[in-house]
Design a protein that fits this description.
The chain is built from 13 helices and eleven strands. It has 342 residues and is α/β, with parallel strands linked by helices. The chain has a six-stranded parallel sheet. Strands 6-7-8-9-11 form a five-stranded mixed sheet, sandwiched between helices. The longest helix has 17 residues. The termini are far apart.
Length: 342
């Protein structure tokens, strides 16, 4: 089998046109004084498809002002767990980029990078979406080269922009829902050790739990400041020993593990224990019984990140930093109810 890759010259020769005509047709750059008959345009497209021609992206990036490519970074840590919010974010963002005028090709980097290495691809890109975090080297390069970039669910540098959910507001909604149901012994189950170290949601959700409990004159339940290593041990400590009638879990995996452990221990949810977690609609839809959850709006985050990046790419002047904080909402399912002694 031949390894020969067809070139721009091959397409031009077969179609009977110049290389510049092929380039303009394939890159959808008709206009600005350049026109081509419909039959010629279609012939170029047909020849390119017949030859299975693929442009040299690295060569294009060296010559074109805009390559119409977006790179999504952080896939290794953000997309590793099934059902997390980032899969929905990527799908939502890609749909927006696919439908943009002239459309953009999107690549997702799933490689594991060393902390002192760059995550940027070898070819030039028009913009970057970062899932939660990337290496400091990558941020430095983005800032120096002024490549437009948006961080989803994480902080950005002075030249970037970010889209984040309102974790503080979400935690307040969760606690207030349980208090309104009559719960006074409310525990907080933090994330497992494997979660993104230093992520802002860790402090925002935990600190808001503490402040909301204080404002309601309620005692915090022991174990709130420790990673969830064993759901069964957490229930034994928080529920059986400390009398918690409700738990706010950091994420849907923690919530699911707690629900399964409660079933194993013979503790009914929500009959004896109410449970709320942070999640997105897709991940929660596959659980049974359905968990009451704080919807982080992953679809909205993906759409907002893509729209913000497109705006930054179009700006002729140096783009300004912008942070969009999206509202979250409490979605009631079957895992919360008034405590049995109310």
């Amino acid at each position: 089998m031949s390894n020969y890759a067809p070139t721009l010259d091959d397409v031009a020769t077969r179609a009977g046109v110049s290389k510049s005509t092929v380039s303009r047709v394939l890159n959808n750059k008709i206009g600005n004084g350049f026109s081509v008959r419909d039959e010629v345009r279609q012939r170029v497209l047909d020849v390119a498809e017949t030859l299975n021609y693929r442009p040299n992206l690295i060569a294009q990036s060296l010559t074109n002002q805009q390559i119409r490519m977006i790179s999504i970074l952080g896939g290794a840590h953000a997309l590793g767990d099934l059902g997390n919010i980032y899969q929905t974010i990527v799908n939502s963002a890609t749909r927006i980029l696919d439908s943009a005028p002239g459309r953009f090709d999107v690549t997702v980097d799933m490689s594991r990078h060393k902390p002192d290495s760059s995550e940027l691809p070898a070819w030039r890109v028009d913009g970057v979406i970062i899932l939660a975090k990337c290496t400091t080297v990558t941020v430095s390069q983005l800032e120096q080269t002024k490549i437009p970039y948006v961080v989803v669910n994480g902080p950005c540098g002075p030249g970037g922009s970010s889209v984040v959910p309102d974790d503080v507001g979400g935690t307040r909604q969760a606690i207030r829902h349980l208090v309104e149901l009559g719960h006074r012994r409310i525990a907080y189950a933090g994330p497992a050790m494997s979660y993104l170290a230093g992520h802002s949601s860790l402090a925002d959700r935990h600190n808001t739990y503490l402040s909301e409990m204080s404002q309601n004159g309620l005692e915090v339940i022991p174990g709130h400041d420790k990673p969830l290593e064993s759901a069964a041990e957490f229930i034994e400590s928080a529920v059986v020993k400390s009398g918690a009638t409700a738990i706010v879990a950091y994420g849907h995996m923690e919530g699911l593990n707690i629900m399964q452990a409660a079933h194993t221990l013979g503790i009914a949810v929500p009959g004896q224990l109410s449970l709320v977690c942070f999640c997105d609609e897709y991940a929660n839809s596959v659980m049974s019984p359905g968990l009451t959850f704080i919807d982080l709006g992953s679809k909205a985050m993906g759409r907002a990140a893509a729209a913000l990046l497109l705006k930054k790419i179009k700006q002729s002047k140096e783009p300004e930093s912008e942070c969009i904080k999206l509202d979250v909402k409490l979605v009631l399912r079957e895992s919360t109810a008034p405590p049995v002694d109310k």
